[in-house]
Amino acid sequence: MKELIDKLEKQHILSKEEYTTLIKNFTPEISEYLFEKARNVRHKYYGHDVYMRGLIEFTNYCKNDCLYCGIRHSNKNADRYRLTKEQILDCCKNGYELGFRTFVLQGGEDDYFTDEIIVDIVKSIKQSYPDCAVTLSIGEKSYESYLAYFNAGADRYLLRHETADNEHYHKLHPHNLSPENRKRCLFDLKKIGYQVGCGFMVGSPYQTAENLADDMLFIKKLQPDMVGIGPFIAQHDTPFHDKENGTLELTLFMLGLLRLTVPNALIPSTTALGTIAPNGRELGILAGANVVMPNLSPVSVRKKYLLYDNKICTGDEAAECRFCMQNRMKSIGYNVVISRGDAKQLGVRN
Ligand code: SAH
To answer: What is the pTM of this model?
Structure first.
């Protein structure tokens, strides 16, 4: 097992069988061995800096029906909301004052927000805050739509591939959604010039160790700038309400493998990780992650963007989340920095 981790450290890739062996058989001792190597690589590129992204959850309307997600179209209990352009710009203003230099606009797939509206919002943010990066996370669109947002100034796009295995993909999504289209989107985004983020849930229903190994190989092929992963957490109003949650241990182990597989990637320690364990986000950083995404959404809508149950920080003001995060990072010897936090190029180390 240790030899496999040494090999991954040197070559940044393993075979499907080798990844599978590690994922099936890891122990606390092997995890520690992996995390130490992952931290070393992370320190080479990013030192002890932690990049911050301000997350703005601007709509929870969604036309899709992903079986795991609390804001799926069929969930009649979801209390739907949309932020106005003015509210979004207010979040940015507040965020800028708190030191955020990246704004992530995330939402369900909401046709109310036409390309024209998204373009206008992106342009307005970039005009007011030219020193900030804008990240979009609004789902599957056409090449032309992605191009329009990019030309308006969007810098980055987050679209988790969810699972690289086609059969598994169909177990998590209704049949009008296809893994081919999701992957097409990711390659289109790269071609256009976005910094692209993919990712997956750890412990999603029906997921196997082989699926996770395929996720690593897909990431190797896509070569994304960012990879977001977090545990699957059941949401009470979804078809997966009685499924097991992903575990802290496996999520951390996958974070470590990711760091060694894509050494210079931007890897967030996610809110979902902080939800399954009180110190989950700190442990994520210690397993190799280098990004945190505190919430900038207005407190009035926080409790409505419920992708999963028991989500943390739904009652806190942006400033509280920001300083709480700073303290958490400080407590483990890391510094939240005020910068756009772009990816370092491979080979160009701190
Ligand atoms: N509509 C956008 C944003 C989706 S929400 C899109 O399609 O990309 C962001 C991510 O939250 C999803 O990609 C999914 O991986 C994660 N997510 C959704 N439901 C979840 C759950 N129950 N537990 C954990 N993560 C979940």
So the answer is: 0.98
pLDDT tens, position by position, 196-255 = 999 999 999 999 999 999 999 999 999 999 999 999 999 999 999 999 999 999 999 999
How far apart are the C-alpha atoms of 237 and 214, rounded to whole Å? 30
Confirm or reject: Cβ of 230 under 6 Å from ligand 1. Answer: yes
Q: For residue range 154-206, list pLDDT tens digits in order.
A: 999 999 999 999 999 999 999 999 999 999 999 999 999 999 999 999 999 99
Return the sign of the alpha-carbon dihedral for residues 137, 138, 143, 148. Answer: negative
Sheet architecture: strand order including 291-292:
291-292, 49-52, 335-337
23-32 long-range contacts (CB < 8 A, ≥24 apart) are 23/209, 23/212, 23/213, 23/250, 23/253, 23/254, 23/257, 24/209, 25/1, 26/1, 26/249, 26/253, 27/1, 28/249, 30/1, 30/2, 30/5, 31/249, 31/252, 31/253, 31/256, 31/287
What sections of 262-306 are H helices per DSSP? 271-276, 280-286, 299-302
136 pocket-lining for ligand 1 (C-beta < 6 Å)? no
Is any ligand 1 atom within 6 A of the Cβ of residue 235? Answer: yes
Checking 176-182 for CB contacts under 8 A at 24+ apart, the result is 177/64, 177/66, 177/140, 181/140, 182/140
Ligand 1 centroid – CA 307 distance (Å): 7
- Atom of ligand 1 minimally distant from the CA of 200: 15
Counting DSSP H helices and E strands in the chain, the numbers are 14, 9
- Under a CB-based contact definition with an 8 Å cutoff, are residues 33 and 6 in contact? no
Other Cβ atoms less than 10 A from the Cβ of 36: the count is: 14
Ligand 1: residue of 61, 68, 172, 176 to mutate (most ligand atoms within 8 A of CB) is 68
Count of CB atoms within 10 A of residue 127's CB?
A: 9
Asked if 271 and 231 touch (Cβ cutoff 8 Å), the reply is: no
Give residue 29 CA to ligand 1 midpoint distance, Å: 31
- Ligand 1 atom closest to residue 199's alpha carbon, by position in its atom list: 15
